[in-house]
Structures are given as C-alpha cells and as structure tokens.
# Entry
Amino acid sequence: MERVVLLRSLSCTTACRRAFPSRPKLFARHLSSLNKHVQRTNRSFSLRNRGCPRFILAPHVLLRRSFSLTPQAVATPSSKPTPQETSRTSDVAEKLGFERVSEEWVPECKANAVLYRHKKTGAQVMSVSNDDENKVFGIVFRTPPKDSTGIPHILEHSVLCGSRKYPLKEPFVELLKGSLHTFLNAFTYPDRTCYPVASTNNKDFYNLVDVYLDAVFFPKCVEDFQTFQQEGWHYELNDPAEEISYKGVVFNEMKGVYSQPDNILSRISQQALFPDNTYGVDSGGDPRVIPKLTFEEFKEFHRKYYHPSNAKIWFYGDDDPDERFRILSAFLDQFDASSAADESKIDRQRLFSDPVRVVEKYPAGDAGDLKKRHMVCLNWLLSDEPFDLETELTFGFLDHLMLGTPASPLRRILLESGLGDAIVGGGIDDELLQPQFSIGLKGVSEDDVQKVEELIMNTLNKLADEGFDEEAVEASMNTIEFSLRENNTGSFPRGLSLMLRSMGKWIYDMDPFEPLKYEKPLEALKARISKEGSKAVFSPVLKKYILDNPHRVAIEMQPDPEKASKEEAEEKEMLQKVKACMTEEDLAELAQATQELRIKQETPDPPEALKCVPSLSLQDIPKKPIHVPTEIGEINGVKVLKHDLFTNDVLYAEAVFDMSSLKPELIPLVPLFCQSLLEMGTKDMDFIQLNQLIGRKTGGISVYPFTSSIRGKDEPCSHMIVRGKAMAGRVEDLFDLMNTVLQQVQLTDQQRFKQFVSQSKARMENRLRGSGHGIAASRMDAKLNVAGWISEQMGGISYLEFLQSLEKQVDQEWESISSSLEEIRRSLLSKEGSLINLTADGKILSSTEKHVARFLDLLPREKATANVSWNGLLSPGHECIVIPTQVNYVGKAANLYENGYQLNGSAYVISKYIGNTWLWDRVRVSGGAYGGFCDFDTHSGVFSYLSYRDPNLLKTIDVYDRTADFLREIELDEDCLTKAIIGTIGDVDAYQLPDAKGYSSLLRHLLGVTEEERQKRREEILSTSVKDFREFAEAVDAVRHKGVVVAVASADDVTTAHSERSGFFEVKKVL
Ligand SMILES: [Zn+2]
# Structure
C-alpha cells in the first residue's frame, strides 16, 4: 500500500537495477530482516527499476523489523553535541510550546535523540540529530480499522490528493516530478499510517515536510467526494445502455493483492491469529467489502485519527533542530487536544486455549497438476503481550538460526523433504503489537498436507531437544554483527529504517529509545550464549513460545481453478442488481457523474495552482554529476577498478566474468548454475559447512548474471558477477571463499539441484502473478534485442517454460545436466576477459592487492572457447499471457534508435514527465489502474509503456498511442519545466551508500558510459526545452506504429479484446 516512486528508470543505473530480477537472493540471505525488507522492496520494484505506485505486500509483511538489530549509522562519523548546543535547541522548542520529555545519546547511531511533547495537543516528537546528510521526516498516526472497507488505505492515498495550502489534484505527484527527494512514500499498516520523506538538500527537505504536514492535517479529500471516488471506489457507467462497473485505484490495487496466493495466505493467517482485535480485518481493503464504505465514514475516520493528539513525529539528520519545531508549531498550534490517542489504542488478542485449523481456496490456473498445488502454513501468536527487548533479540537470533540461510535447519529440512516447492511464511514478525511466527510450504500435494505439518512440528521439537551446531551459532552471530556494523540499508534512508524500528514500540506507547539501543542487550545475549551454551538460551524460548503454545493456526489453501471466474461472476451479478434498482433518471445521472469525474481527472491543474508547490531552482542544482573516485589499474594482467571511499572498515569486491562464449542453449541454466555454486558442497565440505564458513568469515557472497545492451554496439554486455564483502581483517578469507565457490564446488548434487528447480519455478510463478508488468517488459525486450532475449531466457516466460520441462528431466538426464553445469563453469571461468572491482578506504585497497593477485593466479588462464553467436529473438507478434487474475498488466514497446532517434539527455526529462502526467492521469487516475508508466532504456534504445494492476486492456494501449499527440500539444511554463528537470536530476543523483557508488561505477564501466558522457547528458538535461518535448513526439510515434504489445491478462479480458480486434494477440497460457 505504499506509494512508490515511479520511474527511477532513467538514471545511469538502469542496467544495475535491471540485474535484480535474475539475481538469486543476493545478500539478503546473509542480512538481518530489515535488510531483507530492503531487498524485498528492491525486488518488487525491480524490473528495470520500474516501481509501481503504492504497493503490494501487506506492509507488515514488507516492513518486518524482526531481527531487530538494525541501523547503526556508523558510516557517518559524528561527535556528541556540546551541552550548549542541546540546551539551545530545547530553549527554542520550549518557546514554541514543546516540552522536553527525555533525552538520550544513542551511540548505535551516533546521535542525540530528544523526545518532546507538544503541550497544547499532546503530539509527540522525536528529534534525532547526527551528521547524516540524508535527512528524514515522518508523521505516523494510529489508524486501527473496524472493518475491511480499507478506510485507512484509501485515506492514505487520498490525503495526498490536494490540501489547503496546495490545492491541486496531486501535490504528491508534483513532488515526485520536481523534488530531489531520496524517499517519498506512504504506508498503511494494519494499525497505523505512516508518511515519510527524505532528502539530502535542506531546502528541498523542508519543502517536502511542509507539503506532507499540510496533506495529513488539511486534506481536500474530506470535502471532495470525487477524490474518494477516484482513490476508493465508485460505480462507472459511460453509457446508460452499458453495464455498470466498479472503479477506484485502491479497489484495483487490492484486487491485484487478492489475486496472489502468497498474499491471500498471509492475510488469512493474520486474520485467523487475531480474530478478536483490529488485526482480524484488512486495513488494505477487501475488494468485496470496499464498496460498502461511505464518504461519511471516510471523513469521520480522518477527523478522529489524523489529529496531533494521535500523532508521532520523527525528525532525523544533520539539519538545524530549531527549524523542525518552527515548522511543526505552525501546524500543531491550530489544534486543541483530542481523545484520539485513547480511542486508537490497540486491544490485545488473548491467547487461544486450543489450536485452530483453517481451510481456504485460492484462485489457480487449470494448467498442470492441481493436486500438487496446495499450500500449508503453521502460524503462532507468540505472546499475549509485546516481547521485552531481550526476548525479542533472542527470538530474532533464533529466527536467523532456523531460517536465515539455505543451510539453516528448518528451511533446509522442509525443502529437502521434497514435500513442497518453496517456503511460505516469513518466520518471526514483530512489527505489530504482539509477535507472530509462521512457516510452511507451497506446491504441496493434497496427500502430503498432514505430513508437512508433522515435519514442521518434529523439526522444531528436535531443535529444542538437540540445540544448534556451534558453527551455525557462530555464523549467525557474525552475520548479524556484520550487518549491524555495515548498516547497509540499500536505497532506503538510514534514518527511515531507524524510525520504523523505533515506531515499532513507540506506536504502542512504549519506550521509543529502546529499539535504537541494542548494543548492550546484544552483548549480554552473546555473553549468555558463551557462558551457558546456545541450547540453554534458545531451547526454553522455542518451547515456551512455540511448542507449548496452543495459539497455533494451521492454514491449508487449496487451488481452485474456478475461483477467479466465480468471483468475477459474483461481482457482475452484484452490479447488475445495482443497475436493476436504478431508474432511467438515476442511470442518466450516473453517466453524467462518470463523465464529470473523468473530465476533472483529465483537466490539468492551472499553472498558478502548480506554482504553489515549492520547488528548488536550477541554481540549487550541482552542475557536475556525482563523482565516484575510480582508479583503473591491473593486477596479473587483469583490469582492476578501485574506488577509494569510506566504508567503515568493510571491503566490497566484485569479480566479473565474461559470458559471451557460452553456448546459447546453456543460457537458461545460468541462474541455476549460480545458485549451485553457493548451495552445493565441495570435496571436503558439504554445503552446510560451506555456508557456515561464509557466514562466519564474511558479510556474504552472491553470484548472479548481468546482461544489458550497450549503446552503439550490436553485441550485448553479458557477465556473471560474483559479489562479496568482508571486514578488512577478513579479506584473505573472502577471496579464498570466492575461489572455493567458483572452483571447488562440485556441481553433482542432484537432489539439491532438483530443489533449486522447484524453488525457481515457484518464484517465477509468483512473479508472473505479482509483477506481470515485469514479465511483459522482459518479453517485449526479448522481441526487440539480443540482451533482452538473453535476460528473458534467464528470468521471463521462456525461463519458466524451461524450468517446467527441466523439472521433469532432472531424474532421467541428471548426468547430462550436471555436465552442462560444468561446461558453463569452463566457459565462464578464466582470467581472460575478467575484471575486478573494489570499494573501500585507500589503506584497505592497498592491502587487498596481494589477495586479489592470488585469487587471479588460481583462475584458469584461458577459457574453453566455442564459436557461438547469440542472435536469438522472440517472434515479433503481439502476445497475451493468460493467467488467473482479476487485473491485467499491459505493455507496448519499440526501439527508438532503430527508428532514427539519437540519444539526448532531454529524453530522461521527457520520459519521466510522460509517466508522471499523461500516463498517471489516463492509465491510473481515470483508467483506474494501480500504475501506468514508461521506461526508456538508453542502452538498448527500447522505449516501453507499462501498466500495473489494470482493469483495462485495449483501452490502455489506445492511451499509449496518443502519447505523441500529448507531446505535440504540450504547453509548459518555466516553472513546470524547471520542476521536471529538477526531478530528473533527483533520479540521476539518487542517494547511494559507498558500496552502491562503487557498484554503479563498475556497471558504467561495463556499459561504456564515460565521465564525459555523463557530463554531456547532465548538461542536456539541465537545458531541456519545450521544443525537445515536441520533437520527442516523433520518436515515440515509432512505438505507436511499429511497437510490439505484450499483456499479462485474464482469459475473460482477452476474449473481450478479441471480440473488438479479432486475432490481435497470440495467446499463451502458462499457469
Ligand atoms: Zn495503495
């Protein structure tokens, strides 16, 4: 339910993000859960960085804080403020009506944190000061729903649609377009709604804060029924002769959520665990219940809960703390105290005295063996009250031990059992008032459901009785400590991950400082483990909270190929009844209202209104691209890139191997080859020992393929990247282990390989349902260029089909598969054509050289060359992938370079603008899709349009086709143009932690993007004119005339489309 930034696509890191879809797990398995969250976020945005506005996973799933040992802002050294500084701040705050409640120095994030209370309203403010330039603000309200109408979620969307000071359609979109934000979004949790922003630029930061505060306290939506209709739900009737349909952004978003089996499972689990409190309903909204919501209830919910008395406000970073209170008091002083904080209190769920069992059906396709597609999950409500910090830490640790890596026993035993394809349930979840634990399998045969439940219970019992290997405990401890030390939150601001941690307690009126300070309890836990042994620490916890706990819910989900169409039929029937009850007058009125809403949605805001959204000016923008220090040298004849950056004693290393001499038929095996390297054993070590060794000595190793087009070249860029990280003292171990993984691992473990195939298949099927836009995009790419074709072989529909047939072959043809894996190794692994990339402080870089030299010496000198040419492309026709879904994903794309367009930086500005205006307005706002966006891959020249959770099909393509007309007629004043340019620079200059800077620089090197080119593009971006927009119309017209269409859609919608345009699509059924 987040709103997620659209289209970060056009930055120079396009190709980097493009690598995500096919990269197996990356560091996630070696990181704590918050980082898992970050990874997951990335993965969901993944395909070519396309985000989708406001997204998908239930935030409590998404924002798991669990292994609650996160941020320590160590990479930004900071000194304690002097006493004078602190007291000066509190003077200003006190003058402005805030009282200081408590203050603490938090060494874990080198920050001074002060908790204030706004005296008049009781609003609570946490003001955290350190010298992190990536400043964060957030305001959070407790918003417990009483039903599944989705009020909190619809409100979360709606308050961002215009406010008192910013009376335009969507100030949020204006900020997306024209600010330098490093984070801009909103999340709905089951019990709270959270509005965070971040920026490294002071002026920009305060602009964002002001827009957000005005939005939450004074939104237009509480007076504007049309916003409620647009974001929530409404009846749509274009012509009284036609059928009525439901429309609404949240309505369609949730239909998408309810089409995904994994989401259905986690929702049912939560509701069954909490039948008696607010978590027993869906704050996101059940599409069958959303239409029961009235505008009156909606307004009342806002009045009651969006009040300072019910607010928790967070500021973090290196800005002037006084300024924070000046901004806040201007808003808060306008309110009196209310009883909201009492009314929003979350009741606890009392523990059951007996376990419960729930059986539900989920919508499935009719392809394949239905009997083998059951899902089983065991869930526990761990406690009738929140955990104390010590128990929380212990449980987080235990969770990592049981499930954190492929070698972890609970995960491994479940997968090795062969009873299912992939794990469901995410282990511990302590984001809500009471902690939960869940684990299960999907792809289970009907007859094995009971066996899975028994296996889970037996394994847990065994772990409680026997304890864990000391090596495993040591590996988990090192992984956790490493991730704390590194504090790598990826693209997620550090201050925001701290805020979410603190909020996990604060929102329930517990101590907000406590979650920030884990150092001592962690030391204590370590000391206990070394003194008493790990069994004495973990077994009692496992027994008390899981094994002896009767509050257990077993969920079984059965595939039902009829369910999707049944639900669709029910909805139709419902709407027909509604229509039957209407008089002719009513119908005319509804048609009129539909028309009026559409006109309102499609009419742009007047320029005066747009001007009220504060923005920077071009003078505030640095003229040069972000510089990443790069020294190119050579070790033993291999090119080495070194980036001297402060990394707090961590070395990040990438070894890159050329893939271009691989036989084309082996390409689809590459992702499985990469997984095998990390998850099979060597002659001397089984894979568990190898994984534990990696966990004990390093911060993690990952291996994945990377593919992209290179501008101006026919041959694609195609590599395998091995990525690793370690503390400076462990660099030798890191390179030894990278060598072990690459050269010593035996690719002969048939049983493990079989599991990889099933897991990958399950993952691909999940992507197809949840990220159909990504699948469509990769399919279009595969029709347009070779790099796209290669990627699709390793991560698209072709890959899924490959996995489906491979699953059947593993038993009969293992010898030949195993030797193909060896052949891949021989084709990739050699000094020739390889490259090393290193990121760390200068001193570490120098001391690393000898280890790199040894690593390279051990590689084969030359590769086994084969004469291969990769010129595969998929057939160029329009295609529709049919899956069981209630919403569609629609794409259209063409290669602009092949149609004569020459790259200019203005294309970045224009594509972003098309996405944020034309497509946003037509595909999302009036079309009712959850998202509509475009992407220009500047490396290949492919320009593509995509929609996300879209109720339409052909209609969306028509919108795409009219983009050129939109550009030809465009009127842009200076202000709008400036905002468009600044927003684009914000994307290009996206905030990166040091490891990401080094990595982006590597990708630019591989893709031949020089510093001169970056400077040139930046100048072109900064000097973009309206004329460029109009000229770009010619370029995008190529998509209209020559573009290829790929949709992922429901069978019904394809039939309807074909009744309008017969034979338009070639139809392909995969699920
Ligand atoms: Zn949403």
Observations:
- The two ends are 26 Å apart (CA to CA).
- The first strand starts at residue 98 and ends at 106.
- The first helix runs from residue 14 to 18.
